[in-house]
Amino acid sequence: xxxxxxxxxxxxxxxxxxxxxxxxxxxxxxxxxxxxxxxxxxxxxxxxxxxxxxxxxxxxxxxxxxxxxxxxxxxxx
Length: 77
What we know:
By secondary structure, this protein is mainly alpha-helical. Helices cover 65% and strands 0% of the residues.
C-alpha cells in the first residue's frame, strides 16, 4: 500500500475528476412555476398531497412545505 500512497502525493484532481468520483447528488432546483403549480394543486379540495407528489416524482414532505409557503404567501397578498 505504501507505494500507491507515495505515488499519489502531490497529486490533485481537477474539478471534473472530483465530480466523477462523488456519488452524492446535489439538491434538485425545481422551477418556481412548477412549485407554485403543484402547491396550488395540493390546496384544491380533495387533493392528495402524497399522490400528487408521487405522480410528479418529488418527496411528499417537500410538497407539504411548498403548500405551506404558498398558503402563507396567499394570506399576505
